[in-house]
Design a protein that fits this description.
- By secondary structure, the chain is an alpha+beta fold.
- It has one domain: RutC-like (60s Ribosomal Protein L30, Chain: A), CATH 3.30.1330.
- Helices cover 28% and strands 25% of the residues.
- It contains 3 helices and 6 strands.
- The protein has a 6-stranded mixed β-sheet, with helices on one face.
- Strand 4, helix 3 and strand 5 form a beta-alpha-beta unit.
- Helix 2 runs parallel beside helix 3.
Length: 150
């Protein structure tokens, strides 16, 4: 028996269960021209969202980082994210949230300059985190969530 004081909550939970859309499954996005380790997909599409895995500033079809430091790496990582989103039917304008991982927070201004090249106005919500190290000795890694247009 549910206590009377809990009835509004129980009713809300019951109603949420009744109006939920059926699960459509998860679609995995893998591109041959964007580097990745085989342990993950470039992105997954679930419901109304595209979840882009951590993406580095690697050259097309290579695990080699672009030269020049955090600015060029950020610009290339954003190009890679754009390509991944395109394969998922979305674009940078659909990004709702990003997390930026920096190997050195002293690189924040250079990363931000490259970021503004893609998002000069109305940028998505973002968190920037300093980390001890990134795979491939990268200076920056981006992880994004975008609205799905599918």
């Amino acid at each position: 028996m549910i206590p009377r004081s809990c009835l509004p909550f129980a009713l809300a939970i019951l109603l949420m269960g009744c109006v939920r859309a059926p699960a459509a499954g998860v679609e995995h996005v893998v591109l041959p021209d964007v580097a990745r380790l085989p342990a993950f997909s470039h992105a997954t599409i679930a419901g109304h969202f595209v979840f882009v895995s951590g993406t580095l500033g690697t050259r097309p079809a290579s695990l080699e980082l672009v030269a020049g430091g955090v600015g060029p790496e950020t610009a290339q990582a954003l190009r890679n994210v754009t390509e991944i989103l395109g394969a998922a039917g979305s674009s940078p304008s659909d990004i709702t949230r990003c997390t930026v991982y920096l190997a050195d927070l002293a690189d924040f201004d250079a990363m931000n300059a490259a970021w503004r090249g893609v998002f000069p106005t109305k940028p998505p919500a973002r968190t920037t985190v300093g980390v001890a190290a990134l795979v491939l000795a990268a200076r920056v890694e981006l992880e994004c969530t975008a609205a799905s247009r599918r």
